[in-house]
Amino acid sequence: MQSSKPGQFRHSLIMANLRKYKGPSWLPADSSNTILLGGVRAVQAFGLRRRLVAKYKEYLEDAYNHGMKKNVLYGFAFGGEYSVLYCGMGLAFRQGVRMLSRGEIADIGTVFTVVFSVIVATQTITSIVPHLLVFNRAASAAAEMFTLIDRESSINPFEESGERPDEVQGNIEIQGVHFSYPSRPDVTVLDSFTLTVPKGKVTALVGPSGSGKSTIIGLLECWYNPTRGTITLDGRNIKALNLRWLRTNVRLVQQEPVLFNGSVYDNIVTGLIGTAWEDSSVEEKKRRVEDAAKLAFAHDFITELAQGYDTTIGQRGGLLSGGQKQRIAVARSIISDPKILLLDEATSALDPHAEHIVQQALDNASKNRTTITIAHKLATIRGADNIVVMSHGRISEQGTHGYLSTCGELYEKLVRAQDLAPSSDAESTTVQDDDTSDTEPAIPVSLTKTPTREAATLQNLKHREDFDRYKPLGLIRSVAKLISMTPELAGWYFVSLLTCIAGAEIFPGQALLLAKILDASTSSSMVSRGNFFALMFFVMGLGCFVAYFIMGWGTNIIAQTLSRKARLELFDQVLKQDLRFFDRPENAVGALMSRLDSYPQAILELMGINVGLVVLSGINVLISSVLALAISWRVAVVGVFVALPPMLLAGYARVRLEAKVDAGMSKRYAVSSAVASETVITIRTVSSLAIEQSVLASYAHELDTAISTSVPGLFHMMIWFALTQSIEFFILGLGFWWGSKLIMYFCGQGAGQMFVYSSSFSKAVQAANYYFWMLDLEPEITENHDNRDVGPANGCTSLQFEKIKFSYPLAPNIKVLKGVSLDIRPGEFVAFVGASGCGKSTMISLLDRFYDPTSGRIVVDQTEALSALNSRLYRQHVALVQQEPTLFPGSTRDNISHGKDDDNEASGAEIEEACRAANAWEFVMSLPEGLNTPCGEGGSQLSGGQRQRVAISRALVRKPKVILLDEATSALDTESERVVQKALMEVAAGDRITVAVAHRLSTIRGADRIFVFYGGDVVEAGTHEELIGRGGMYAKMCEAQNLGV
Predict the structure, then answer these.
(1) Domain range 4-148+479-776, CATH class
(2) Which of 70, 355, 383, 577 falls 20 to 30 Å from 368 in CA-CA distance?
(3) Do residues 868 and 899 lie in contact, with contact meaning Cβ atoms separated by under 8 Å?
(4) Is the C-alpha dihedral spanning 763, 769, 773, 775 positive or negative?
(5) Backbone phi, then psi, for 380, in 5-degree steps?
(6) SS3 51
């Protein structure tokens, strides 16, 4: 009997390891989803859902085939796990009867004692399989975790060693620096770069995209170490300085501002962490926060928010406009009064007026402070003490603005390209909005009066339709619905049910055989009868092997098929939702990724062998109870009707309580996961602010909160668990009769086995209900029977806005657009300009039909309301280029080809034509593999300007009737901007409508009409010359950007 235990233990380990992983083939699909969900606007704008779902399906097929290879292994593992037990029992009883007949043991009770001891031991081994699964997963995760913990980083922010000078003067020396990024070591980014940055002076870096400007910032922040050469601060090599000390004295404002989920105050005061003011009083911190906000031109708009400085701004500041986020980022960087300030396109997201005032604030903040600034807008650096023009990782020329404007070659061309001086004066035209006068509004130009989405407080969110209001199904109904959704698996469901019935009959059969052996021990033919019944145990083991083999095979097929179906349909349904869905805080990318990964896995574990074993245990309880009543109903009635119901009730209560506890813990752990996810995504900002220790403490606090709040629920849950385990022995005591006792014993075991997998059940039921909810969730903007074939009749030749009012769904009381009326004529190039948050980008969102207006309508081709059209057919005529370009995993060719419709692939000639028009062909051909060069996740292998030109190429290859440019050239250097702008002007000619949103006014001076927005309405309209001649709001914006060469 003991010889069977090692075999069964090995089978248990095999089972645990088989179920340990979901398969490495899921990983490419899961990692790509992060990029796809983060770029959902681009996915919807280019109608990529079906194409991306098809690609995702290919990943899933690989994972499915990987999982199906386990069928035989599952069969052998499950079949062997139980058959070894019965074969061992047969051997034990044969040997025991023989020893009893020879007088070597006193009575049959000794045999039963030994056998039941081994049975309990082996059943214990069997019962730990689900827990071994958890342990193995934990061990796997721990192995990866320990590998990461043990990894030695050459740049360690937690290292306490290093010099901490008492005073910082700010002299920076860069001597002979060579650098290549680790991911592309063969590409030289900086080549013998040498530069002196004097203390208290402003040094500006300009030049084409990819020339190495941002790399200088990265080296000064110690994100990387130079390949060769040195960088010194006040004569000390920065490698010798304490990293945290260095970063608290060198502050950075990046091109794309990154804010954290929390209040405005929380974000700005983060800049004090690690400084002398970190432990100052609350009053002192508030004073410094307000002073920094005033200096960054942010105080006024902050005080007009719903809760002032305490207003929650959402994930990554999602409830603020781009300019507002940037000004808060500026305030955060200057609050600690750093000696060195790094500005990487710090004002690129601001409108002209705000840019002018914020630049004045930065100029004031730069006095007596070493400042290195990167800029494409040359107006922001004309006052720099030294302007360094970079090209191909070297310095081409340097000097002051005046010197370079007359003696420089490259810089002088850049300056002339951005000059906004009007070519002639003209009379202004009247605005088409009936409610707008011809005079400049009396209200001063101020961003602080512009309503935005930040007032979407928790009160606004309480009435949304979401998963929390969905009426969930229980375990049985969830399993039944999953079965009904896969009729193609009906045969496997039937086979699995038959094997469950066969497997369940073995347990009471085992009890009967034990009773027969007990009876045979007093018979004269003890040995022959004992041998026969021992042989029956072998037969039972063989039957058990066959039944469990088929069950393991069949349930794995069911689980893998359902998991693949759930993953694919969940992904498809998520991409099908409109932006209302993605605006909700609970549908942040990290949360959606977690569900897309863990929920199908939970369904796989539920519908695999787990549910088969539960069904088997339930049938076992039923058969054992009937058999016990048939043999000795007077004894059995006590166990069946007195002891068994409390056990089932206790188990059910435990499952319900565990589901409730799991749901609560999931929500609490979602908070800690959000902290971790946000930190990883924004690691450059976290490191530049030197707040790693603070973030780690915040993460630990969220984990402690999740654990402490879950302890009471876990305590109550374990009370029910203990009750289910103890009642089994109570049943044994009540049924203490030789026949009925054994049957009721296995009946109680079957009832207890039903609740071994309750942990996976509670998680799986929650996952299944989310799956059902998503399948039933229909977006407001969708393709349905009424509009399936309804597209633009004439291909979007004209557009009209008729008294458009709009509020974002999460902030219905904030009016973003207030009755806008304007028309866009065939072939016209129009531009929307104005203060940050005034509604310009909202107009683009409405034109691409990410949202429908709250009231009013948009008319296409003078005949059809946009809301009545099929959004997919409409978007086939529209192309979007966003301010922050979204590129997807794949090659440059793949990303550009995404601009074509779902059913069409772009030809090589089309791709080349689009790249040349976007000034991208030369740099694309210079990449290591040309068009086949991988872009990296989110285009990480390309510079910001290169990513933007690929995005413009993607839009142009679509050959759209309407092209929407939302700050399309904001990331380009001046020369690339000029060439791309010329190309865009050329493609705008003819019958194509071009709508551009711009802060850099040089990009839209050639527009047929310019609409100036203020406070959610149009206040001026006309050509560039007309509006300049009028001397109103637009003229003041141009004056703020005019370089006056």
Answers:
(1) mainly alpha
(2) 355
(3) no
(4) positive
(5) -80, -15
(6) helix
Q: Kindly give, in sequence order, each residue whose CB lies less than 8 Å from that of residue 820, ignoring residues fewer than 6 positions away.
A: 433, 801, 803, 804, 805, 839, 843, 856, 1016, 1017, 1018
**Coil, helix or strand for 940?**
coil
Residue 452 has pLDDT above 60, yes or no: no
What is the average pLDDT score of the chain?
78
Sequence-separated contacts (24+) of 539-543 with Cβ below 8 Å: 540/86, 540/90, 540/506, 540/509, 540/510, 540/513, 541/82, 541/83, 541/84, 541/85, 541/86, 541/87, 541/90, 542/83, 543/502, 543/506
Q: What pLDDT is attached to residue 579?
A: 86
Q: How far apart are CA 10 and CA 126, in angstroms?
A: 11
440 confidence band (pLDDT: 50, 70, 90): very low
Q: What is the largest CA-CA distance in the chain?
A: 125
For residue 883, what are the contacts with CB-CB under 8 A and spacing of at least 6? Answer: 322, 349, 841, 966, 967, 968, 970, 971
Cα 113 from chain centroid (whole Å): 57
CB atoms near residue 863 (< 10 Å): 10
Taking a C-beta distance cutoff of 8 angstroms, is the pair 397, 409 a contact? yes
Sign of CA dihedral 609, 611, 615, 621: positive
* Dist CA 169 CA 370 (whole Å): 8
> Is the distance from CB of 63 to CB of 25 less than 8 angstroms?
yes
Band of pLDDT at residue 706, cut at 50, 70 and 90: confident
- State the Cα torsion 177-180-185-187 to the nearest 10°: -100
- What is the pLDDT, as a whole number, of residue 453? 38
Instruction: Identify any residues that bridge with 344 across adjacent strands, giving them in sequence order.
Output: 374
Backbone angles phi, psi at 156, to 5 degrees: -110, 110
Give this prediction's pTM.
0.74
Write out the two tokens for 741.
């006792």
Beta-carbon count within 10 A of 139 CB:
11
Q: Which two tokens stand for residue 951?
A: 């995005």
Per-residue b or e along 1013-1043, where b marks 16 or more CB atoms closer than 10 Å to that residue's CB: bbbbbbbbbbbbbbbbbbebbbbebbbbbbb
CATH topology of domain 172-417: Rossmann fold (3.40.50)
Q: β-pairing, 394-399 with 1009-1014?
A: unpaired
Helices (H), 485-525: 490-520
Long-range contacts of 671-677 (CB under 8 A, 24+ apart): 671/702, 671/705, 671/706, 672/699, 672/702, 672/703, 672/706, 673/590, 673/591, 673/594, 674/261, 674/315, 674/588, 674/590, 674/591, 675/699, 675/702, 677/590
Nearest Cα residue to 100 out of 509, 740, 531, 574: 531
Enter the tokens of residue 798. 């004209």
Rounded Cα distance between 186 and 188, Å, is: 6
Q: What is the pLDDT of residue 823?
A: 93
Domain ranges of the chain: 4-148+479-776, 172-417
How many residues in the chain? Answer: 1045
For residue 15, give Cα distances in angstroms to 21, 120, 305, 687, 752.
11, 20, 57, 43, 20
**β-sheet bridge partners, residue 966:** 997
Same-fold call for 4-148+479-776 versus 172-417: no
**Number of other CB atoms surrounding residue 104 within 10 Å:** 11
From CA 478, how far away is CA 483, in angstroms rounded? 9
Q: Using an 8 Å Cβ cutoff, are 258 and 685 in contact?
A: yes
Phi and psi for 1017 in degrees, rounded to 5? -145, 165
Query: How far, CA to CA in Å, does 124 sit from each of 329, 512, 580, 726, 734?
Result: 59, 22, 51, 15, 23
CB distance 776 to 481 below 8 Å: no
Query: What are the residues facing 250 on neighbouring strands?
Result: 340
First-last CA distance in the chain: 97
